[in-house]
Q: What sequence folds into this?
């Protein structure tokens, strides 16, 4: 078990959200601080009154903050600066407090990129399909478009307006060919055969509905890398189907891990102890 | 070494002040939480912008707060309620946050009372002299007057207006005979011979000027209990002189310990593990 010794010099980081009591972020970040010998500690605050909470974070000198549901969009106008990718995504999940100046970032998209790269894959120049158009899909699509542009990016989602907006935002900011379509068996049948990297960014398949998958088994093929951002269960129905079809799979734990690692680096300036952080998550889900 | 395991359910308490980096409060309270098996943690925040910090404490749901210099007076109008003793004292050092309702208390005076009682002495019906008229002296004089009124309370201080105000506040609220005078060798010569409990509540004798004492050695006598609130050094010049004169002595560590114990009970509702807390302080000063 990770343990922290707290004294009057301990630097404090926190996650804010509502609800918050099941967050794994304290466990993963405290383990990382301890592994690096940092006198830092990470706590969780359940927050309803966001404006006062942000003013408090400034006044209390809380160094780094993870922001989760329902505050990822509403928090943006309360910050001093928001980085370009997060502005385009339209949400942040990370605050860095530098002497009372609060800067916002979105580590989800970059976390997804790191997860793919750690597994030996980069989206640059590849044919990539993203399933979903909500917050997580936006973060990933825009990070890919800005930081590692695919040859072709196809976004398939259930909400037509969201899909169109995400497609045009990704295409405009990233100078990448983007196709956005309603997610149907037909659009998947068209997009998946020559796809190289499939990223599933919807909640389908999450516990307790872990028998569900959006992707027909016959569309999975062994040249496909399948990355599912759902991490509960660890191996989703989609990933089991993909494994059976001979695909390379990347689990949602890698996404969660890598977005946390990006936060760790933003706050501390140090390289994150990624194996220690992975161990915390793996032990939790074992 | 005290260590805390922090997860998303950990209840957070804090000390606010400026400066704060040498506070012993995190060490003592974290040890107490751990000893009681509470999933609580106590951190330190250096605070300049008090109003925003208090709003933040409310919004972040920080359960308990110790307030130290320079915020003990200015914080009062920012709270929802302040208890009678603290209102009369004119400062608080403790906040209890009950679902966003902030209540202020001053645990210094009650801590002094507990320290005396733990040593086997009560001020009720006794002849008591307090040296000093600043914040600590006020907290002690008013707590004594309200909660364990001496037969006679003499307040000797260097600031005439402060002494007069404290004397009249103590007399009015506590219905006790109070004499207030300027602190001089003459006033001490008059007050100390039949005094039973002497409480030193000025900074005189504190490190690095640890060779200083306000009290002439010839006025110390073996029927006197001498309680010095200075805890650095552990045994002040006054206490060494008192010990040589055959007095019973009570060190400042007992004051610090007992005010923290009163806070612990206000926040948790549980009896404080006082021996564990004392051990932390004694180890620190060893």
A:
């Amino acid at each position: 078990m990770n343990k922290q010794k707290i004294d009057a010099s301990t630097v404090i980081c926190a996650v804010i959200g509502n609800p918050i009591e099941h967050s794994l972020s304290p466990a993963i970040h405290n383990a990382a601080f301890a592994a690096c010998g940092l006198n830092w500690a990470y706590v969780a605050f359940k927050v309803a009154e966001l404006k006062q909470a942000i003013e408090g974070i400034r006044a209390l000198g809380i160094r780094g903050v993870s922001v989760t549901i329902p505050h990822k969009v509403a928090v943006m106008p309360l910050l001093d600066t928001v980085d370009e990718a997060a502005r385009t995504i339209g949400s942040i999940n990370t605050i860095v407090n530098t002497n009372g100046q609060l800067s916002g970032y979105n580590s989800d998209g970059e976390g997804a990129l790191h997860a793919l790269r750690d597994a030996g894959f980069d989206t640059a120049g590849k044919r990539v399909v993203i399933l979903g158009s909500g917050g997580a899909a936006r973060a990933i699509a825009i990070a890919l478009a800005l930081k590692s542009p695919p040859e072709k990016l196809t976004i398939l989602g259930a909400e037509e307006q969201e899909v169109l907006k995400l497609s045009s935002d990704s295409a405009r900011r990233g100078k990448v060919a983007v196709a956005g379509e309603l997610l149907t068996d037909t659009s998947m049948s068209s997009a998946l055969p020559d796809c190289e990297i499939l990223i599933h960014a919807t909640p389908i398949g999450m516990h307790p509905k872990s028998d569900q998958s959006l992707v027909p088994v016959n569309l999975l093929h062994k040249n496909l890398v399948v990355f599912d951002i759902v991490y509960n269960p660890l191996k989703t129905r989609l990933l089991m189907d993909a494994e059976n079809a001979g695909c390379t799979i990347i689990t949602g734990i890698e996404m969660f891990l890598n977005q946390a690692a990006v936060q760790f680096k933003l706050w501390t300036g140090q390289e994150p102890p990624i194996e220690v952080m992975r161990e915390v998550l793996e032990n939790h889900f074992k």
In short: The domain at 11-105+257-284 of chain A is CATH 3.40.50.10860 (Rossmann fold).
